[in-house]
Amino acid sequence: MKMIDSHVHLGNGIKMQLDEDTLIKNMDHAGIDLAIACPMDRYLAVYNREGNEFIAGAVRSHPDRLMGMASVNPWFGKAACEELERALSDGLSGLKLHPVLQGFRLSDPIVYPLLEIANKADVPVYVHTGTAGIAEPFQALGLALDFPCINFIMGHAGASDYYNDTVRALEFAQNLYIESSRNGPANFCHWQINGAVDRVIFGSNAPEYHQDIEILNILDVFTDTAEREKIFEKNIRRAYKGRMPL
Asked: b or e along 222-245 (b: 16 or more beta carbons within 10 Å of the residue's beta carbon)?
């Protein structure tokens, strides 16, 4: 079984910092084969091109260990669309949207032009969820229903107040997945009991959380080998439609 971390932040942000050498060292310590990186805070919100270029450079430096998600702020309109197209052509493999940092409601049609580009490029979209009124699981469900050919990953699985909505949303759209960061054993058990394991994807949200500790929390609940294979490898491969370097 390969171990894939679907969500790490890389770069020099205001609140968090993580350079690529440290990330690779941490991955080796935790037994992670591949990580999917996105830009840090201000590069998600404002300095999109700079952040995307940094992530693309890290991927080129470590093509067997890293993949990258582009991020653009939908308020930039046409410029955002052009930057997303450029970033995807530069080797990034998905789109990260963060309604809180980028200042929009996940259900707002302002994001649809970006989703049209992601749909055309056939790449997955990671959306932050868990913020009341702005980024809720049923809002992500609306996007998944409107764009059935895009695989959507609900970042943080709606933690902490929307764990019930997250599992229920999976019933209505096969192109929805839930990412594990910011969750713990109680929610993992909830997913297991409700048969959601086919849609659970491991993500650490490093450097906010330690990769090795996040892995241990999952292993503590999901003891079955087949479940672990799905969470750490098979589900993320399906979400990315097999486009991975290993």
From this structure: beeeebbebbbbbbbbbbbeeebe
